[in-house]
């Protein structure tokens, strides 16, 4: 029985820049339990998105290890990583990342259909209902408000029933009422589906709704047991 769904050890990420090598992650260890909700906070430029991308198998570390649901990513080739991402994870972005030319229903349905999910349309309809968008099925993203677009993105993320949902500033482009609605859905689904939630946020209220908070600080990860330090973008 694997209790930790994410295990990160001694993660280092270094990139080459015009000014020379830049160490973005300086040795990160992290263990996330199945079903846990974890907030990653910290100042802009501290490495939060880089960390999330590596844990989500979208990017590779310079050294160190990441495993998702007991599978060590360093043993996988690109195709196997893509397969693992499809089977176990979903990602929600600050900028929604919907396909402009597809309707809400198609945005939710097509990726699911492509990854071989049965009854994709029926499930997409159910998920769009859960996020309160049954009346917007045939609208294009540009015909939807930001909050509605992010709810489409949530339906798309949850339809594959991921073990882990990654969200990078999921409420960053929303006003507070829409942000709260999206956050409510995230936690509802985290609880109802047992989905592990790892989210990067500047929103202190959102961070505090997670069971656990960690802070990125100049490439290091600090476990917070108290209220996170307020930081602005
Ligand atoms: P955060 O999400 O906390 O704002 P990021 O992870 O996006 O931080 O970036 C951390 C730092 O690393 C920033 O200074 C950013 O400019 C830099 N950085 C990220 N990726 C690259 C890259 N591929 N090449 C050069 N610099 C990068
Ligand atoms: Mg970021």
UniProtKB/TrEMBL annotation:
Gene3D superfamilies for the chain: P-loop containing nucleotide triphosphate hydrolases
Presence of keyword Mitochondrion: no
SUPFAM superfamilies found in the cross-reference section: P-loop containing nucleoside triphosphate hydrolases
InterPro entries named among the record's database cross-references: AAA+_ATPase, ABC_transporter-like_ATP-bd, ABC_transporter-like_CS, MacB-like_ATP-bd, P-loop_NTPase
Pfam short name (any one): ABC_tran
Domain of life of the organism encoding this protein: Bacteria
GO molecular function, one term: ATP hydrolysis activity
Record domain ABC transporter: where: 6-233
Gene Ontology cellular-component annotations: transmembrane transporter complex
Keywords assigned by UniProt, alphabetized: ATP-binding, Nucleotide-binding, Transport
Membership in a protein family: Belongs to the ABC transporter superfamily. Macrolide exporter (TC 3.A.1.122) family.
UniProt-recorded name of the protein: ABC transporter ATP-binding protein
Species whose genome carries this gene: Paraferrimonas haliotis
